Amino acid sequence: MYEERIKRSGMQGLITSAANAASFIKDGMVVASSGFTKAGDSKAVLKAFAALATTSPRKITLLTGASLGHGTDGTLTEAGAVHKRMPFQVDPVLRHAINEGSVLFLDQHLGESAELINENIIRPDVAIIEALLIEEDGSIVPTTSVGNTATFAAKAEKIIVEINVSVPLSLYGVHDIFSTGVWPDRKIIPITAAGTRIGTSAIPVDPEKIIAIVITETIDSPAAINERDDKTRSIAGHLLQFFEHEVKKGRLTNQLRPLQSGIGKVANAVLEGFIDGDFEHLTMYSEVLQDSTFNLIDAGKMDFASASSITVSQPCYTRLMTNFERYKPHIVLRPQDISNAAEVIRRLGVISINTAIEFDIYGNVNSTHIGGTKMMNGIGGSNDFARNAYLSVFVTQASSKNGAISHVVPMASHIDNSEHDVDIVVTDFGLADLRGLAPRERAKTIISNCADPLYKDLLKDYFLAASRKGGHTPHLLEEALSWHARMDITGSMQKETNSFA
Amino acid sequence: MYEERIKRSGMQGLITSAANAASFIKDGMVVASSGFTKAGDSKAVLKAFAALATTSPRKITLLTGASLGHGTDGTLTEAGAVHKRMPFQVDPVLRHAINEGSVLFLDQHLGESAELINENIIRPDVAIIEALLIEEDGSIVPTTSVGNTATFAAKAEKIIVEINVSVPLSLYGVHDIFSTGVWPDRKIIPITAAGTRIGTSAIPVDPEKIIAIVITETIDSPAAINERDDKTRSIAGHLLQFFEHEVKKGRLTNQLRPLQSGIGKVANAVLEGFIDGDFEHLTMYSEVLQDSTFNLIDAGKMDFASASSITVSQPCYTRLMTNFERYKPHIVLRPQDISNAAEVIRRLGVISINTAIEFDIYGNVNSTHIGGTKMMNGIGGSNDFARNAYLSVFVTQASSKNGAISHVVPMASHIDNSEHDVDIVVTDFGLADLRGLAPRERAKTIISNCADPLYKDLLKDYFLAASRKGGHTPHLLEEALSWHARMDITGSMQKETNSFA
Ligand SMILES: CC(C)(COP(=O)(O)OP(=O)(O)OC[C@H]1O[C@@H](n2cnc3c(N)ncnc32)[C@H](O)[C@@H]1OP(=O)(O)O)[C@@H](O)C(=O)NCCC(=O)NCCS
Ligand SMILES: CC(C)(COP(=O)(O)OP(=O)(O)OC[C@H]1O[C@@H](n2cnc3c(N)ncnc32)[C@H](O)[C@@H]1OP(=O)(O)O)[C@@H](O)C(=O)NCCC(=O)NCCS
């Protein structure tokens, strides 16, 4: 059985139940699991471990590529099974535990999250890897994501493989596994275009480390289908108009440059916008491939897309999996330290588009913390891209919750992407091109182009009063965070309901 | 005359006075000048321009590699000759003008400051380049720095050369000029060790663009001699002890990894500390070479040092210039987009050591703004290195001005290097290794290891109260910046003198 999927002879004897495999995971262990933006994650063993922890308490430190699907983080959290979690998550139950302090969370740049392991600061005891198949030599072909799996496989003491038989074998060949190695023999990453292939189709593995194989057939959690609404349509419109302007100015061609786009409805709306526009021969050098990528490939607008995972809606997933050979020549899946590598992003001149929780009048971006304290998801790859992009774009709605929240604030309550790394900010009201502008110039442009009119005068008043006080980046320290404090107390940033400061 | 220095035939006719050359610079122009950390800067033409501006007003946008020496920025500012300045400065007169808003300043990552020019966002009208000599083909050999000069030479409409006859011809060959080119043909930077040479000894120049040559003989402004005091000695001691610990743990060898060190007394003290230690075959991949580098070469402890400039004290300068052949095999000067390249810094696994103005209990670093508003110098290369380093270290004294200022604060008043990019923080009281720690763990470690005992209880109280309120990164928004506000009003962060909040 499973000869097509377990090619190494003798290894079929390792097939066991998820519960059995999970029992190899002991209290206090560091467990590293495949999974990136809900794709290619552990479907069985982590949940089985949660079940064991419910009856007999045990806790792990859990490392992944990025977020897990199927509510696995929530199930583990409810079972009290997580001591520390890194480098990213999107689960409401886990988020709550992180914010109350009962689970420790390490919010890391996704492109650097393999470093602590490569450099032996953290050593995984067990890796759990979802696989398409195991080769004769024991090497593992992953499924819909690569993430940190190659690092986990190299560094973990033991490996549990989840063979997912629902994933078609036609995925074989889409992966491009490459390791830079470690100092002093760290290699150049010789990628010079989104489509450059530099590695192998499987992750090298010492077969002796594989201790259990579990068969699964659950598909990835689907991404939500993001309907375009008026706001996302406006944001996308401003950005597409800006690209057209740059083409007219001769700074870009209508091929643009390799695109990166964060997950979410705005990013999707921007990409969908390319379907009707004059842009062609587009490429992506990104983290995640979403529905819009495949729609652009189908429309003949996108030539090639590179990423670390495929995270799509249910209908798109079906379309893809039943027809993978059609898409395979146009896409590649890489380890996240390659998809998010500073080196490649700068070399290719990526245009990065990510969503901000809020930005301030000087262009500092908060990607992670609501009100400066509560973790939303994590910095993800936003700064991997923004820091080295040719053009670093951040988008957000100008205001939300019926105007109670302004996403353009005097001072960002937490800073993940500093003013130094932000070129363009966009809201549904407009776009501000910050390139070449000093802080006082930036403030004027951001307030007049991007703020919701509800908050424009408040922002202007703040900026003028701060400017009278002076400084390269004028601020009134007593007021800088008062909007957030007000929001915390009254549920709105608007002054009418002021009860703080 | 000057046949040795002006090898291109016919070009000697371009020799003229500084005043004459400066008259080519018109009101409103963008002027790009050589100069990096006070080395290899324009000694004559910019000052002559300032003199012209005094009698007949004119203003320029001034771009450099990094800081200029000889008070040139101050002279230009006093003459009202600067509209906008980028990417870095250290001049008290200019700093004052920036902070009162009369000169606009663009504080940029030094490693990325050539990007706006390469991508035609800003176009220099005139470049002023200090040169050792001009080759037969018109290409220019720079002096004690390379900085952004290769980009300026390629992109400026016209070039004015300052031949500095005080710089010995023995410098010839120390430079390694390499351009990555621009998208879509951007090249890999094939550096795999501090000492890899990849380029040419001179900067390619279209000789038609050279409109004037000025002869100078002023040497670079000397760096201050930094005497080690008790505090810098303590900080250096903690860091050296940490390196020894890492060697014992097997994570480093006694060769360490290529070192980067910011300018200043602490960095110098750390490097000097290596002279007596067990470390050997050290290398540097840094921005600036300081006295300590040459002392380590002389002591046989350092094999090779790569940077973009040489900025040393007067005695060290003399020693170097009279004996350059001795040092030349051990050093190389590169363009700042190569010395500070993300790609190379990550590949080589650099250990970066920079000074912070302050850091907060979660490890966010302020490198630039006093009290969140007043520009000190600029971010410089700190984040180029910290963002991609193997180990990113920030040092500062725990407190200063007789305890009036704590450099460990609840929330950094400005953030240049975020928690994501900071591995180790050190003060004279101790070192905190933040690798693998979640925010709440970091706060405990930083407060107990790094804070001045004067402020320890205040920080603990803040952290405990904030933790009770909750959040992944606990903060009390109303108090987070109150220390700085208090400092602003009372001249001290200590609570006894509280008159704010
Ligand atoms: C920033 C990010 C959270 C935005 O995601 P999104 O789905 O567009 O989020 P929204 O703006 O719709 O919603 C964020 C929530 O926070 C709330 N919020 C935002 N600012 C707030 C504030 N100051 N106070 C209170 N709530 C706030 C919003 O109202 C919204 O709440 P809701 O879910 O109850 O409606 C998300 O893009 C992210 O996690 N980014 C970081 C990672 C990253 O950029 N990766 C890039 C590569 S994938
Ligand atoms: C951060 C930096 C300014 C520190 O330089 P330094 O010479 O060690 O500075 P010090 O800590 O001695 O002094 C900074 C001044 O700010 C003052 N200061 C610091 N924090 C303050 C605060 N919160 N409120 C008021 N004053 C403050 C200090 O008291 C000191 O004042 P003084 O000059 O009147 O004594 C400097 O390293 C820098 O510019 N770094 C950014 C660039 C960089 O890192 N480059 C790296 C590659 S070279």
Automatic annotation (TrEMBL), chains A, B:
The active site is at 287 (5-glutamyl coenzyme a thioester intermediate). CoA binds at residues 262-266, 357, 377, 381, 401. Residues 15-214 form the Acetyl-CoA hydrolase/transferase N-terminal domain. GO terms for molecular function: acetate CoA-transferase activity; acetyl-CoA hydrolase activity. GO terms for biological process: acetate metabolic process; acetyl-CoA metabolic process. It comes from the Bacteria. Residues 319-462 form the Acetyl-CoA hydrolase/transferase C-terminal domain. The keyword Hydrolase applies. The keyword Secreted does not apply. InterPro entries: AcetylCoA_hyd_C, AcetylCoA_hyd_C_sf, ActCoA_hydro, ActCoA_hydro_N, NagB/RpiA_transferase-like, Succinate_CoA_transferase. Keywords: Hydrolase, Transferase. Belongs to the acetyl-CoA hydrolase/transferase family. This is Acetyl-CoA hydrolase/succinyl-CoA:acetate CoA-transferase. It comes from Chitinophaga jiangningensis. The lineage of its organism: Bacteria, Pseudomonadati, Bacteroidota, Chitinophagia, Chitinophagales.
